[in-house]
Amino acid sequence: MAGLGKRFRDAGYDCPKYRIDAHGRTLFAWSMLSLRTFIKAGAKFTFVVRREDSASDFIRQECQAIGIVSAQIVEIDALTDGQATSAILGGEVLDNPDEPFLVYNIDTFVHPDALPAEAVRGEGWVPCFPGKGDGWSFAAAEPDGRITDMREKVRISQHATIGLYWFSSYTLYRQVYDDYYSDASRLEKGEKYIAPMYRQMIQAGREVFLHEVDYDAVIPLGTPAEVNAFLLREPPLL
Q: In angstroms, rounded to a whole number, what is the distance separating the alpha carbons of residues 159 and 218?
């Protein structure tokens, strides 16, 4: 939620993309409903958003409607250098940095049945689906689900990430972020992404696991064309 949403503004939308309505729900709601099993498990949510969007009331209303009980809002005054850094800003306000830490984007719907909270394992956990094209992060894994490599926008396997990244704690996430991006050459086109950070964990011998999600369970909503395609189909049954 901390980005500009430039493609939507260029397409004529006059509101942040997460406020766009589709089938009676906002894109914010569709994205957060992906995490229904985590919501039911009592997960605490932190939203990182641009201050100029004045989104606090909107977020609180949406959270109440969805059933999110605990929600913090972090408002930022400038763009960050990527999702990995935006997540740092959210993590810094947590009450307990040693609790599990999950980062999710605001422009993908995944049927919640495909993301059971009890499936989480290891020190890192990455849901993936057989995404088409090269515009994803990709994971290579052993038959038992152990991830051996991850790359941003490099198709090393059919396992495309859905934009959800789980770590066993924020403390671990911060440590890996600091270690990985201490080398500025690891930025991708000037941005800090989360997916490549798992390579640091794997090289250190930490266990990172892939979670397979069916292709039909994932609905990308990150571009105007994807939203238009979503509007032309029947909404998912929840």
A: 13
DSSP state of 28: H
Place of tokens 């990150």: 222
- List the beta bridge partners of residue 74: 48
How far is 42 from 37, CA to CA, in rounded Å? Answer: 9
pLDDT tens readout for residues 178-228: 999 999 999 988 999 999 999 999 999 999 999 999 999 999 999 999 999
Q: What integer best gives the mean pLDDT of the chain? A: 95
Maximum distance among all alpha carbons in the chain? Answer: 47
Which residues make Cβ contacts (< 8 Å) with residue 162, sequence separation at least 6?
Answer: 108, 110, 127, 128, 129, 213, 218
Query: Phi, psi at residue 130, to the nearest 5°?
Result: -75, 70
- Show the CA angle centred on residue 146, arms to residues 142 and 151, nearest 5°: 85
pTM: 0.95
Burial of 8-45, coded b for 16+ CB within 10 Å and e otherwise, reads: beeeeeeebbbbbebeebbbbbbbbbbbbbbbeeebeb
Q: Concatenate the DSSP letters of all residues of 201-237 into one string.
A: HHHTT--EEEEE--GGGEEE-SSHHHHHHHHTSPPPP
Q: Report yes or no: 137 and 105 within 8 Å, Cβ to Cβ.
A: no
What type of residue sits at position 111? H
| pLDDT tens figures, 30-89 | 999 999 999 999 999 999 999 999 999 999 999 999 999 999 999 999 999 999 999 999
